[in-house]
Amino acid sequence: MIVNCVAYQDGRKLADISQADISEYLKRPGCFVWVALHDADDEELEAMQDDLAVEDALNGHQRPKLEEYGDVIFVVLHIVETEAAAVLHVGELAVFAGPNFILTVRSRAQRGFADVRARCEREPELLRHGSGFVLYALMDAVVDRYFPVLDALESEFEGLEEQIFGTGVARLNIEALYGLKQRLAVLKHAAGPLQEAVGRLHGGRVPQVCTGTQEYFRDVSDHLSRINQALDGLRDTVTTAMSVSVSLIQLQENEMMKRLAACAALVAVPTLIAGIYGMNFKSMPELGWAYGYPLALGLMAAIDGYLFYRFRKAGWL
């Protein structure tokens, strides 16, 4: 559905217009139209189709990218939102920016960009740059929404890090860390490719639509650089934490095996002695000796006592 359809001239809002009046306002010099769609169907997109770039929006589920079609820029942004139970939901924002229009198509995302429109209308001097400045404001808003998600993931990791050396929770920590690593990958897939795309808007040959706004896109690029560096560092730290948790599990299993081996040795010695003298052969030594039984018990106790001492000293018990 159409969320907004507004005409602007010289950085100021002219009026909310209908879809039928768009072509009329596009003919006015110094005027551009900003159309916002939300979860648009094929008919609505086809009605807005002025160039081949619009066809990309029909596909959906695309990676963040920037493409040029003549004097029109097509940008795909991923909107990352946090849902219940620490689940990340990924939506899309497709932006078509031309010399006298900007069309946004928001898909699978709850939060809109009314605050971006309000911000642009409060700054008419900057809005004079037309669709190029609106494109910057949208990209800046999307990137700024990554920071709270990143902060939440960092806070989650700090909580898990405190539990790594807790008793009996190593396996649960691995599951939680792996889930965290997956969410970091989701955010990385949104921010990583976008940095390369934004770099084309402030360095080298800048598209005509973005002329005069390079410094703003450079600011977005700096934010993306910070996010990507933080994500890379956090992912490495999570990987290290997972390795530590696995090592702790192995240490716990080794300690358990040591205790079991020590207990088995303490049981094996009396079993061996009792088994030998339980065979009842006539010619066995000490079989008819009156002190044979207490001697056997004493020997068992002495050997087990010595083994217990050595195992305890070695830390096996």
Secondary structure topology:
Elements lengths: L1 E8 L2 E5 L5 H5 L4 E8 L3 H7 L5 H6 L5 E5 L2 E11 L5 E11 L2 E7 L6 H9 L1 H4 L3 H14 L1 H18 L6 H30 L14 H64 L14 H23 L3
Parallel strand pairs: 3-7
Antiparallel strand pairs: 1-2, 1-3, 4-5, 5-6, 6-7
Helix pairs in contact: 4-6, 6-9, 7-8, 7-9, 8-9, 9-10
Describe it:
This protein is α+β, with helices and mostly antiparallel strands. It is built from 10 helices and 7 strands. The protein has 2 domains: 248 residues, Beta Polymerase, domain 2, CATH 3.30.460.20; 58 residues, Magnesium transport protein CorA, transmembrane region (Methane Monooxygenase Hydroxylase, Chain G, domain 1, Up-down Bundle). The chain is 57% helix and 17% strand. Strand 6 and strand 7 form a beta hairpin.
* Mean pLDDT over all positions: 83
- Biggest sheet strand order reads 2-1-3-7-6-5-4
Number of helices: 10
Report the radius of gyration as a whole number of Å: 35 Å
Can you say what the CATH homologous superfamily of the largest domain is?
CorA soluble domain-like
Question: Residue ranges: pLDDT <50 for 5 or more in a row?
Answer: none
Helical residues, percent: 55-70%
Overall shape: it is: rod-shaped
N-to-C span: 71 Å
Short key terms for the protein model shown above:
single chain; 317 residues; alpha+beta; Beta Polymerase, domain 2; Methane Monooxygenase Hydroxylase, Chain G, domain 1; 7 strands
